[in-house]
Amino acid sequence: MAVEFANSVPTGGVPGSTVVKRLSGGALLLGSLTIMMIVVASAVGPFNIPISHTATTLLDLAGIGESTAAPTEQAIIQSIRLPRIFLAFFVGAALGISGGIMQGLFRNSMADPGIIGVSSGGATGAVFAIASGASTVSTLFLPLFAFVGSAISMTIVFLIASVGGRFSMATLLLGGIAVSSFLGAVTTATIILTDDLNVQRQIIFWIAGGVDTARWESVRIAAPIIGVGALITVFVARDLNLLLVGEDEARSLGVRVTLVRNTLLISASLITGAAVAFSGIIAFVGLVVPHVVRLAVGADHRVLLPLSALGGGLFLLVADTAARVILSPAELRVGILTAMIGAPFFVYLLVRNRSRTSML
Amino acid sequence: MKLSWRAGTVRRVNVNSLLLVIAGVVAAAIVACGGGEEAEVSATVEATAVQSTATVSPVPAPDLIRFADVPGIVDPTNFGWPRSVETPEGVISLTAPSTKIHSLSLGHSEILAALVDFDRLTAVYSFFVDDEQSNIAALSADHKMIGFDPEEVVALEPEVIIASRFTNAETVGLLKGAGIPVARTNLESSALGNIPNILLIGYMVGAEIEALELVDEIESRMRLITDGLAGASTGVGTRVLSVSKWTSAFAAGSGTTEGGIIEQAGAINAAADSGIEGHQQVSIESIAAINPDVIIVPQPLESANTFIDELMSSPALAEVPAVKNGQVFYVEPKYHTTLSHWNVRGIEQLAGLLYPSAFSGVAFEDFTNWGD
Fold first, then answer.
1. Cβ contacts (< 8 Å) between A324 and chain B: which residues?
2. Domain residue spans in chain A?
3. CA pair distance B18, B32, nearest whole angstrom
4. Would the CB atoms of A202 and B246 count as touching at under 8 Å?
5. CATH class of segment(s) A2-357
6. Which of A54, A113, A302, A356 satisfies CB 3.0 to 4.6 Å to A272 for a cystine?
7. A213: burial class by Cβ within 10 Å (0-12, 13-18, 19+)?
8. What is the pLDDT of residues B167-184, one digit of tens each?
9. Considering B166, B199, B217, which residue would you say is the last residue of a domain?
10. What is the pLDDT of residues A113-169, one digit of tens each?
C-alpha cells in the first residue's frame, strides 16, 4: 500500500493553474455547502424556531436588520447552536487536515490523526483532569489538560523516534502505537480502578466524543490553534508532495526535509490536540475525509489539505446536526454518526472507485 | 396531624419462632376440633423445624399466602428446606437459609440489608460505601470489600449469588460454572411493582417475615403518598424532568428508575412525555424544548450544584417554567438511581417538593435495615 500510495502522489510538478483551478473549484463547492449547512444547522434543533426568526437572527448578527426572534430563540441560536456549529466545523477541519497530513507523511492510507498517540495523550490528560477533580474547578481545565496531554504524548513519541540522533518515521509510527497502547491502558485502568462512579461516567462520556458542550470560549480557543496550524501545513504542502518520493530525492530538490517533516508533524499534532481537547475522540473523520477528497481531486497536497479541512468541517457539521435532530429532543453521540455515515460511504467509494483506489 | 411512618417499629421476629407459634396454634386447633389426622399435624409440626432437613411442605401461615403469586417460587406452599426458585438463570435449589449470600448489585444488597443480618452478605463493592449513591454506605464501610473479578467472588465461597439484569452474562456464566447457584431477579422501577422481587428474595434467603414487613412498609408509605396526592388541590400533572450531567447531560425518560419515581410522585415524566426512552443525552436546547415545570438533578451534591448553576444562568432556559420559577432542585441520587425499596424515599422526597401543602405535616423517614 505504501509504495502504491507514494507512486500516486504528484511531486509538485502539477501545473500551478491546475492546482488553483481544482482548489478554487473545490473550495467554492465545499465553502458554499458549509455556509448552507451553517444556516440549516442554525435553523434546526429540538427547540422549534421558525425559519424566518433564524434568518433574521443570523442577519442581525451579520449587522443586517434586526432579529424578529423571541429572546429565548435568540439565546438558543446565539449561545447554543452557533458555538456548537463552529466548534464542530473547526474540529472536523482539524481532523480532516491532520488525517491528510498523516496519510501523506506515513505514505499509508490507513493513517489517521491519532496514529502517533496524540488522541490517546489527550484522553489521558482529560482523564487526569477528571480524576483529580481539576475539571470541576474551571470548564477550561479539561480541554487544557487534554491539550497538554496531547503535547506530552507527541513529545515522547518524537523523542522515541529520535533516539540515537537519527529520526525514523518507522520508529515514529511504532512509537506512536506503543505510546497509544500504554496511554490507553492508563485510561482504562483509571476507569476500572477508580472508586468514584461519577469519575467513571465522566471519563467514558468524554472519550465517546462530541461537541455538545461547546461554548464560545471553546471556539475562541480552538479556532486560532487549528486555523494557524492549518495555514502552516498548507504552506508546506508542496514540500510534502516532494517528500513522498523519498527524503533523498526531496533533499536534492531543495526541500529542507527535517524542517518540513517536523513542521508538518508538530502542526498536525497540535491541531489534533486542540480538536481532541474540546471534542474528545471522534473517530473516522480524519481517516475517511482525506480519502474521499483524494478520490475526488487527486493526491496533490496543495489541494488535498485545504479541501480535507473544508470537507472535514462540513462532514462533522452535518453529522453533529443529524445527531442533534434524529432522536430529538434526545441526542446521539456524534462519534456514532460519523462512523455510521462515514463507514458505509467509505465502502461505497472504495467499491465504486476500485480501479482508482488501487493506485492511492 | 403529624403523620409519620417509622420503619423498624415492628419488632423483627425470627421467622422460625413465628412459624413455630403458628404451627402450634394450628395443631392445637386441629386437635381441639377432633378431626385432625395425624399426618397433617405431623407435617405442620415438621415445618417448624425449618433448619432441619425437613422435606414436607407445611401449610403456609395466612400472611405467607402473599408468596403464592410471586413469580419464581417453584412451590409456594413450601416454606421448609430445601426450597427451589426459578429465575432467568434456571432453577436453583436451596437446602437451608444461606449464611453466605453474595449480591452483585447495589439494589439487591440494599434489599438484603433490610431482610437479613448484613453479616450474611459475603462482601461489598467499592461504590457501596459512597453515601451519596448508596443507602447502605455505613454498613458497607466496615464490610469486606472486593473488586469486580469473578474469581474474588468464587473465593468467598458464597452459597447463593443474586444478580440483576445489569450483571453481564459472562460473569454469571463464570460463577455458575464454578458451581455456585445464581439467581437473577429483575428489579422494577415501580415501588409496588418491585414487591414480588422483594418477596422472592426474602423467600430465597429464608426471611419471609422480614420481606412481608418490608412490603407492608412500602405499601403503607405508598398509600400515604396516594392519599396525599388525592388531597392535593394544585400541582397534579406537573411535568418534571430528571436530568444529570456527566460531561454531557442525560435525561431520564420512560423505563428509568428516576422516571418511575416521578410518575409515582403524581407527576408527569417530562422526558418520557417528549418521547425519550431510557437515559438519553440531551442538550440545554433539548431541555428548553422539553419545557419542564420542575427539574430535578439526582447526582452528587457538588456536581449537581454546578449543573444547577449552569441551568439557572442559561439565557436559553430563562423562559422555561422550571428555571423561571426557581423550581430546579437537587435530589439525593441514592434514592433515585438505585433500584430498591429506597426509591420510595425518592418518591416521598419528590412528592414533598411538588406538593408541599399536601404533605406539610408528614415527616418522612428513612427505611431501616435489619436489626436497627
1. 283, 285
2. 2-357
3. 21
4. yes
5. mainly alpha
6. A113
7. buried
8. 889 999 999 999 999 999
9. B217
10. 888 888 899 889 989 988 888 887 777 888 889 889 988 998 898 889 888 888 888
